[in-house]
UniProtKB/TrEMBL annotation, chain A:
It comes from the Bacteria. Coiled coil: none annotated. Residues 6-234 form the ABC transporter domain. Keywords: Antibiotic resistance, ATP-binding, Cell membrane, Membrane, Nucleotide-binding, Translocase, Transport. It comes from Actinoplanes sandaracinus. This is ATP-binding cassette domain-containing protein.
UniProtKB/TrEMBL annotation, chain B:
This is Transport permease protein. The keyword tRNA-binding does not apply. Belongs to the ABC-2 integral membrane protein family. It comes from the Bacteria. Its main location: membrane. It is a multi-pass membrane protein. The chain crosses the membrane at residues 21-43, 55-76, 97-123, 135-159, 166-186, 222-240. Residues 22-247 form the ABC transmembrane type-2 domain. Keywords: Antibiotic resistance, Cell membrane, Membrane, Transmembrane, Transmembrane helix, Transport.
Length: 311, 248
C-alpha cells in the first residue's frame, strides 16, 4: 500500500475532436480531501469517470488505491465508492430498499454496515419506508451517499455532491464528508464552489478546459487570487484619479470609473476606508464589498472568465 | 456470483413493474381493451373468412408483446441516464445481470399479459383447433418473440438520450403489428402497405402463431419467424452490450 490514494499522470481524453482532458497530473495522499474545482464543462466529471473505471482514458496513467484503473479495474472497484452528480437512487424503491439493494449486490466482505445503522446516521430512519420519489433533493443526496458507504470503501469520489442543494443541506453534507475523513477515508471531491473547496479540501486543483491551471492548499491558492476588496465607483475621471492617489495599493478601472481597494471586509477596515474618503472630500457613487468567487479565481489564474468555453 | 446478482436485479425490476400502475395497464390491460374493441367494434366490418376472434387473437398476442415495450425502454433508459447503471458498474455488477434482469422482467410481463389475453379470448368465444403440441409450439414462439423484442428494446433504451426519447423509440414497435396481418389480412390493405405488410418481420411471426392455433403453421412461415426473432435478438443483444460497455 502506497501513501498515495490516487496518482494520475498525463491523463488525456477526447470525445471526437473535442479534447476534454489535456494532460492531467494529480497526487492525492491517503486520508485527505482533494477537491477538483472548475466550472461546467471543465472536465471534472470525465476525470471522475476515468478514475472510477467507468471510462477509458486515451492516454496517461491513473492508479487508484495502488491499482491501475484500466488493467486492474476490478481491484479498483472493490476499494472505491462513487456518488455521481445526479443522485443515483432508485425512485420506485423506498430508502430502506435502496440500501438493501446495495447490501445484496455488495460482494461479501468485511465490515458490513447494517441498513438500520446507515439510516440512523444519515437521519433517514423516519423516511425509510417511503418511496424515494417523495424525497427532497437533500435527502436523495444523503441516501445516495449512504448507498455508497455500503461495503466500506476506502476512497470515495463525490461529483458535485452539493450542487442544487439548499444551504442547510449543504452544511449537513459537509459535516458528513468531514466525518468520513476523520475515519481515515480519502475523498476526491469535485465542485463548482470555491467556498466548498475552501471549507473541505486539504488540497485543491483548479481545472479549466481540460488542464490544471493551479494546484495547492486553499491558502496557497487564495494567495494567488485577489482577496476580499471594496469596489468604489466614482462620478468622474477626476475623482477616480484623486482616489487612486489616496489609496496607493488599489487597482483602477478607467472604463468603469471604479477603484478596487483590497481589504478584509470587516467593519474596522471599512470605517477607515470611508474616513479617508471623507478626509479627502471624495464621494463615491457606489460602494460594494466583493469576496472572491470562482470567477475571480479563473480570471486570476487563466485570464478569462468561467463562461468562455463552457460548451 | 453473477447469478445471484441477476436474481437481485430481476427482483428490483419486478418491483418496479408492480409499483408502476401505468406500465401494468399498458402491458396487461391495454391488449385486452384492444381485443374488446376490435372484436366488438370493428370485428364485423372485416371479412376474414373465419370467426374474427379466432383470426385476431394471435395478432393481439403479438400486440400484447409490443405494448409492454415502451415501459421497458423507458425504465432501462432512466437507469442509464440517472446514473444507476454507473453505480452498478462500479459495484462490479455484471452487464449480464443488469440487462438480463430487464429482459426477463419484460418477458414475464409479456407472459402474464398473453395469459390474461388468452383467457379473455376464450370468454369471447375463441375456439382454436390447436393440439397440446401446437400450444407448446405457440408458447415457444411467443417466448422467442418476447426475448427478441426485449433485447432490442433494452438496446433502444440504453442508446436513447432521455427516458422520453426512449419511450418514443419504442413506438414503431407498437405500430408495426398494425401494418402486418395481425388485425386484418394483408390482402385487404392498399398497395404499398400490402407489400410492406407481407415482408415485414411481424407477418410471418403472426402467421406462425395463427398456424399453431389452427393446427400446424406453414414451414416457410415458421422458418422465417424463427429467423427474424433470432436475428432481432442477436442484433439487440450485441447493440445493448456494446452500448452498456461504452456509455458512462
Amino acid at each position: 500500500m502506497t501513501s498515495s490514494a490516487i496518482e494520475v499522470a498525463g491523463l488525456r481524453k477526447a470525445f471526437g475532436d473535442k479534447i476534454v482532458l489535456d494532460g492531467i497530473d494529480l497526487d492525492v495522499p491517503a486520508g485527505t480531501i482533494f477537491s477538483l474545482l472548475g466550472p461546467n464543462g471543465a472536465g471534472k466529471t470525465t476525470t471522475v469517470n476515468v478514475l472510477t473505471t467507468l471510462m477509458r482514458a486515451d492516454g496517461g496513467t491513473a492508479r487508484v488505491a495502488g491499482h491501475d484503473v484500466t488493467a486492474q479495474a476490478k481491484a479498483v472497484r472493490a476499494r472505491i465508492g462513487v456518488t455521481g452528480q445526479f443522485a443515483a437512487v432508485d425512485e420506485l424503491l423506498t430508502g430502506r430498499e435502496n440500501l438493501q439493494l446495495m447490501m445484496d449486490l455488495n460482494r461479501a466482505g468485511s465490515g458490513r454496515r447494517t441498513v438500520a445503522e446507515l439510516l440512523e446516521r444519515f437521519d433517514l430512519t423516519g423516511a425509510a419506508q417511503k418511496s424515494v420519489s417523495t424525497y427532497s433533493g437533500g435527502m436523495r443526496r444523503k441516501l445516495d451517499l449512504a448507498m455508497t458507504l455500503i461495503g466500506d470503501p476506502r476512497i470515495i469520489f463525490l461529483d458535485e455532491p452539493t450542487t442544487g442543494l439548499d444551504p442547510r443541506s449543504r452544511r449537513t453534507m459537509w459535516d458528513i464528508i468531514r466525518e468520513l475523513v476523520s475515519g481515515g477515508v480519502t475523498i476526491f471531491l469535485t465542485t463548482q464552489y470555491l467556498e466548498e473547496a475552501d471549507q473541505l479540501a486539504d488540497r485543491i486543483a483548479v481545472l479549466d478546459q481540460g488542464r490544471l491551471v493551479a494546484q495547492g492548499t486553499p491558502g496557497e491558492l487564495k494567495r494567488q487570487i485577489p482577496g476580499t476588496h471594496v469596489r468604489l465607483r466614482f462620478a468622474s475621471a477626476t475623482d477616480l484619479d484623486a482616489a487612486a492617489r489616496v489609496f496607493a495599493d488599489s487597482t483602477r478601472d478607467d472604463d468603469g470609473l471604479t477603484l478596487r481597494v483590497p481589504g478584509d471586509g470587516g467593519t474596522t477596515t471599512l470605517r477607515a476606508l470611508l474616513d479617508r474618503l471623507d478626509e479627502n472630500a471624495l464621494r463615491a457613487e457606489e460602494f460594494s464589498v466583493h469576496t472572491p468567487d470562482l470567477d475571480d479565481v479563473f480570471l486570476a489564474l487563466t485570464g478569462h472568465a468561467t463562461e468562455v468555453d463552457a460548451k | 456470483m453473477t447469478k445471484s446478482h441477476a436474481v437481485v436485479m430481476l427482483r428490483r425490476n419486478l418491483k418496479h413493474i408492480a409499483r408502476n400502475p401505468v406500465s401494468v395497464f399498458n402491458a396487461v390491460l391495454m391488449p385486452i381493451v384492444m381485443m374488446l374493441m376490435f372484436v366488438y367494434v370493428f370485428g364485423d366490418a372485416f371479412n376474414v373468412g373465419v370467426d374474427y376472434i379466432d383470426y385476431a387473437t394471435p395478432g393481439l398476442m403479438l400486440l400484447a408483446v409490443c405494448y409492454g415495450l415502451g415501459a421497458v425502454a423507458t425504465s432501462v433508459n432512466s437507469d442509464m441516464t440517472k446514473g444507476i447503471i454507473n453505480r452498478f458498474k462500479v459495484m462490479d455488477v455484471s452487464r449480464g445481470a443488469v440487462l438480463t434482469g430487464h429482459v426477463v422482467a419484460s418477458v414475464l410481463t409479456n407472459v402474464i399479459a398473453i395469459a390474461a389475453l388468452t383467457g379473455v379470448a376464450f370468454l369471447l368465444g375463441f375456439d382454436p383447433a390447436a393440439s397440446f403440441t401446437d400450444w407448446l409450439g405457440l408458447a415457444g414462439m411467443v417466448l422467442l418473440l418476447s426475448v427478441a423484442a426485449a433485447w432490442f428494446t433494452v438496446a433502444l433504451g440504453l442508446a436513447a438520450k432521455s427516458p422520453e426519447t426512449a419511450g418514443m423509440a419504442a413506438v414503431p414497435l407498437v405500430m408495426l403489428p398494425f401494418f402486418s396481418s395481425a388485425i386484418v389480412p394483408a390482402d385487404l390493405m392498399g398497395p404499398g402497405v400490402r407489400q410492406f405488410a407481407e415482408y415485414q418481420p411481424f407477418t410471418p411471426i403472426i402467421e406462425t402463431l395463427r398456424g399453431f392455433l389452427n393446427g400446424a403453421p406453414a414451414t416457410g412461415d415458421l422458418i422465417a419467424a424463427v429467423a427474424w426473432c433470432a436475428g432481432i435478438a442477436l442484433v439487440g443483444y450485441l447493440w445493448a452490450s456494446s452500448t452498456f460497455t461504452k456509455r458512462a
